[in-house]
C-alpha cells in the first residue's frame, strides 16, 4: 500500500511530537522527561477515541529507541538503519503492541511477563504497548503489579485507555498519567481545512464545520468523515452542507428550530408532521430528545455563543434563525421545556412504543406553552407581521412578586390536569398493599404472564411504600420489570420502584406450594384411610390430593 492510497487517518498520522494536534503540552512534557533522562517505568494515556493515545505511544517508543537521539525525531529527520520505521509500522521485535480487548486473561499477562525477562534484541529498550488496558481482568492486573513497580532497566510499559476509571488505582499509581483532552473545535477546523487543501477536496467550509461538530473532538473521526466527503464528488462539483448531512446521517438542525417555532405557535399538526419527517430519516427517539435539549440550550444561550466567536455546533443560517426567535421567547418557557424534556428522557425506556411517546411529549409542550401564554399576555412575536408583541407590564409585575418555585409547581400541576383529568376519571385506583394483593390483581386483570413470573421465578425480599425488592432465578423474562412497572402505574396511578437485591429472598410461591404439597402427601400416605385402602388394593398409588376449601 502506497502512502497516497492510505485512508487519511493513517496518511496524516503524526510521526513526531511537533506534528501532534491539540496535544502540544503533553508532547513537550514527555520530550523534556526523555531529554533529561527522567523516564518513568510506565506511561498511561487516557482520553476519548481518536485524540492520539496510540500515536503518542508509538512516538514515545521511537524517541526511546532512536539511534540518532530524540532531537532527530523532533526535527523530522529520516533515520537510516534505525528502529524508527519498524516501530512506526508496528513490526519491531522489541516493541510489542497488544490489544487488551482480545487478550484479557491472567495467562496472557504471565506470558508477557515471561517474555520481559529477556533483554531487547537490538533496541535500547523493550517496550510493551497495551491498548484498551482497562479490559484486562482483575487477576491480570494483579499479576502485572510487581513487574510494573520494579521492572528491569531495559523494560518500559505504555498503556492506553478510554475508560481510566476501570483501571485499579494500584496500577494507576505506578504510572505517569497523561489525560489527553478533546481537540478544540477551532484547532480541529484549521487542521481539517489544511488536509482538505492538501488533498484538493472540493467541499465547503460549512461541511468542514459539520465534520468538526460530528467528530466531537476526535481527530481520527474527523479525518474519516473528511475521507467520505472528498470521495463523494471527486470531480469539480462542490460538496454542499445538505448533501453532506445525508452522507453522514445527520439531520438538519433547522428541523428542530422550526419544531420549536411551531410548538410556541401552538400548531400541533405541523409539529407532528416535522417530527414524523425526522423519525422517517431514521433518528432514534432518544437521540431526538438529546438533540432537542441541545437546541433548547442554544435558544437560551445564543448571546454567549456569539461572544465566544466561532461556533461549530450550528451553522450560520441556524445561528441567525435561533438569534431572531430567542429574542421573542420567554426564558421561563425554555426552562420548563428543558425540565419536561429531561423527564421524558428518563421515562422513555418504560414505554414500549417510544415513537408515540415522543409525539405525546411534543403535544404536552404545546399545552405548556399555551398555559404560559395565558399567564403572561404574550411571549412570542406575531410571525404574521413580524412586529414585537409587548409584554403586559402590570401582569409582569404580578409574576415578579410570586415565588419561582410556586409558579413552576402551578404550571406543572396545570399540565398534569390537562392530560390526566379525563384519564383519572376512568381509572379505578387499585390498592396493592402486599405481594398477595399483586398476584390477585394480576388474575383479575387477566395478566396471567405476570402472575406466572411472580409465582414461579420471583423471590420476594421486601414489599412496602410502592417499592418491591426482589431476587430472581435465571428463567425470569427479560421484559418482566418493564411490563410490571407499566401495569402497576396503570392500575394504581402511582410510580412503583422494582429493585433487584443481592439477598436470596423468600422461596417462590411455586416452591412453597411444592413443599406444602409434599408434606400433605407424606401425611396422607401415613393416614389410616390410605393404609386400609392399600390392604384391599396392594397396587394402589396416591396421585393427587384435593383439599376442602370450606374447611
Short structural summary:
The protein is of the alpha/beta class. Helix content is 55%, strand content 8%.
Structure description:
There is one protein chain. This protein has 551 residues and is α/β, with parallel strands linked by helices. It has five domains: 3-179, P-loop containing nucleotide triphosphate hydrolases (Rossmann fold), CATH 3.40.50; 185-248, Helicase, Ruva Protein, domain 3, CATH 1.10.8; 254-426, Zinc Finger, Delta Prime, domain 3 (Up-down Bundle), CATH 1.20.272; 435-500, no CATH class; 512-551, no CATH class. Helix content is 55%, strand content 8%. It is built from 25 helices and eight strands. The chain has helices at 8-11, 24-35, 53-65, 70-74, 84-88, 106-116, 138-149, 169-172, 185-198, 205-215, 219-232, 241-248, 253-265, 268-280, 285-308, 316-326, 331-347, 354-375, 393-400, 404-426, 435-444, 448-456, 480-492, 509-525, 528-536; strands at residues 42-46, 95-99, 126-131, 155-161, 176-179, 458-464, 467-472, 497-500. Strands 2-3-4-1-5 form a five-stranded parallel sheet, with helices on one face. A three-stranded mixed sheet has the order 6-7-8. The model is unreliable at 376-405 and 418-428 (pLDDT under 50).
Amino acid at each position: 500500500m502506497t502512502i497516497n492510497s492510505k485512508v487519511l487517518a493513517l496518511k496524516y498520522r503524526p510521526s513526531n511530537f511537533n506534528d501532534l494536534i491539540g496535544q502540544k503540552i503533553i508532547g513537550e512534557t514527555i520530550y523534556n522527561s526523555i531529554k533529561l533522562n527522567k523516564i518513568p517505568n510506565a506511561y498511561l494515556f487516557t482520553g476519548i477515541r481518536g485524540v492520539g493515545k496510540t500515536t503518542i505511544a508509538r512516538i514515545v517508543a521511537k524517541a526511546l529507541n532512536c539511534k540518532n537521539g530524540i532531537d532527530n525525531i523532533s526535527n523530522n529527520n529520516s533515520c537510516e538503519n534505525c528502529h524508527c520505521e519498524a516501530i512506526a509500522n508496528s513490526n519491531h521485535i522489541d516493541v510489542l503492541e497488544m490489544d487488551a480487548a482480545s487478550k484479557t486473561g491472567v495467562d496472557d499477562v504471565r506470558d508477557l511477563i515471561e517474555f520481559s525477562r529477556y533483554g531487547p534484541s537490538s533496541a535500547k529498550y523493550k517496550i510493551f504497548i497495551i491498548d484498551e488496558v482497562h479490559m484486562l481482568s482483575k487477576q491480570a492486573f494483579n499479576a502485572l503489579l510487581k513487574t510494573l513497580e520494579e521492572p528491569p532497566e531495559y523494560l518500559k510499559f505504555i498503556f492506553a485507555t478510554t475508560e481510566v476509571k476501570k483501571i485499579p488505582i494500584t496500577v494507576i499509581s505506578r504510572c505517569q498519567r497523561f489525560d489527553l483532552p478533546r481537540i478544540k473545535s477551532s484547532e480541529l477546523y484549521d487542521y481539517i481545512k489544511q488536509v482538505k487543501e492538501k488533498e484538493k477536496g472540493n467541499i465547503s467550509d460549512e461541511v468542514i464545520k459539520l465534520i468538526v461538530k460530528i467528530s466531537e473532538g476526535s481527530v481520527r473521526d474527523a479525518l474519516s468523515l473528511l475521507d467520505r466527503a472528498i470521495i463523494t464528488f471527486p470531480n469539480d462539483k462542490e460538496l454542499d452542507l445538505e448533501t453532506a448531512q445525508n452522507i453522514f446521517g445527520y439531520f438538519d438542525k433547522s428541523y428542530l428550530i422550526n419544531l420549536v417555532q411551531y410548538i410556541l405557535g401552538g400548531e400541533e399538526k405541523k409539529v407532528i408532521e416535522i417530527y414524523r419527517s425526522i423519525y422517517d430519516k431514521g433518528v432514534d427517539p432518544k437521540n431526538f430528545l438529546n438533540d432537542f435539549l441541545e437546541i433548547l440550550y442554544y435558544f437560551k444561550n445564543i448571546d454567549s455563543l456569539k461572544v465566544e466567536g466561532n461556533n461549530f455546533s450550528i451553522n450560520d443560517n441556524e445561528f441567525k434563525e435561533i438569534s431572531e426567535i430567542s429574542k421573542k421567547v420567554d426564558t421561563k418557557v425554555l426552562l420548563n421545556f428543558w425540565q419536561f424534556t429531561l423527564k421524558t428522557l428518563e421515562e422513555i425506556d418504560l414505554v414500549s412504543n417510544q415513537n408515540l411517546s415522543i409525539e405525546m411529549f411534543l403535544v404536552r409542550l404545546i399545552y405548556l406553552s399555551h398555559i404560559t401564554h395565558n399567564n403572561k399576555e404574550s411571549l412570542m412575536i406575531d410571525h404574521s407581521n413580524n412586529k414585537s408583541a409587548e409584554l403586559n407590564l402590570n401582569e409582569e409585575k404580578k409574576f415578579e412578586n410570586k415565588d419561582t418555585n410556586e409558579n413552576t409547581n402551578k404550571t406543572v400541576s396545570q399540565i398534569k390536569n390537562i392530560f390526566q383529568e379525563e384519564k383519572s376519571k376512568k381509572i379505578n385506583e387499585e390498592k396493592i398493599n402486599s405481594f398477595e394483593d399483586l398476584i390477585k390483581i394480576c388474575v383479575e386483570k387477566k395478566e396471567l404472564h405476570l402472575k406466572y413470573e411472580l409465582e414461579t421465578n420471583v423471590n420476594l425480599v421486601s414489599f412496602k411504600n410502592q417499592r418491591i425488592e426482589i431476587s430472581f432465578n435465571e428463567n425470569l423474562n427479560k421484559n418482566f420489570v418493564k411490563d410490571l412497572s407499566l401495569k402497576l402505574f396503570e392500575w394504581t396511578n402511582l410510580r412503583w420502584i422494582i429493585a433487584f437485591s443481592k439477598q436470596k429472598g423468600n422461596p417462590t410461591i411455586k416452591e412453597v406450594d411444592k413443599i406444602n404439597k409434599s408434606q400433605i402427601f407424606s401425611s396422607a400416605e401415613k393416614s389410616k384411610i390410605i393404609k386400609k385402602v392399600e390392604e384391599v388394593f396392594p397396587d394402589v398409588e396416591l396421585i393427587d390430593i384435593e383439599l376442602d376449601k370450606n374447611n
